[in-house]
Design brief:
Layout (H helix, E strand, L loop, with lengths): L1 H15 L1 E2 L6 E2 L2 H21 L24 H4 L2 H73 L1
Antiparallel strand pairs: 1-2
Helix pairs in contact: 1-2
């Protein structure tokens, strides 16, 4: 039962994904899909382990249709100007999305780099204060030891 719920979840992820116009492609959350697939794999392995010998072969499984698959474009239509324009537009959208993704990654990298630099400066300041505190305590300890010796000598 859990396996079917996981398959349903995977189907929802595909259906709810971002559909790229004029293509059969969908952008989905890869991490979420992989989590569902990993869990499904574990559930199926557990069910196969529990099943009696000979039960659960692939012949017993009904095929599941995830959703409508668009028919391929006939070759004579593929050369039509409208189809060519649609493909060019789709390619342009994909290229723009890739560029935006690269820009976003670069911005994120710059942000993280700046945050790490600020953290480094804070840590260096903290380290300076720690070293100064240690040095001061060592000096005070040396002074206290010297005073103690001087008092004992008197």
């Amino acid at each position: 039962m859990e396996a079917m719920q996981l398959v349903d979840r995977l189907e929802r992820l595909l259906v709810e994904g971002l559909h790229i116009p004029f293509t059969a492609n969908v952008i989905v959350n890869e991490e979420e899909c992989l989590r569902v697939v990993d869990r499904l794999r574990a559930v199926l392995q557990e069910e196969a382990r529990k099943a009696p010998a000979g039960v659960g072969s692939l012949r017993d499984v009904e095929p599941v249709v995830v959703g409508p698959v668009p028919p391929p474009i006939p070759p004579e239509l593929a050369q039509h100007d409208l189809v060519k324009a649609a493909r060019a537009h789709a390619d342009q959208i994909i290229a723009e999305a890739m560029k935006q993704a690269e820009d976003l990654k670069a911005d994120a990298d710059n942000y993280v780099l700046e945050e790490l630099r600020q953290l480094q400066m804070q840590l260096e300041g903290l380290l300076r204060r720690v070293r100064n505190g240690i040095r001061k305590l060592e000096q005070e300890g040396a002074l206290a030891s010297r005073r103690s010796r001087e008092e004992q000598e008197e």
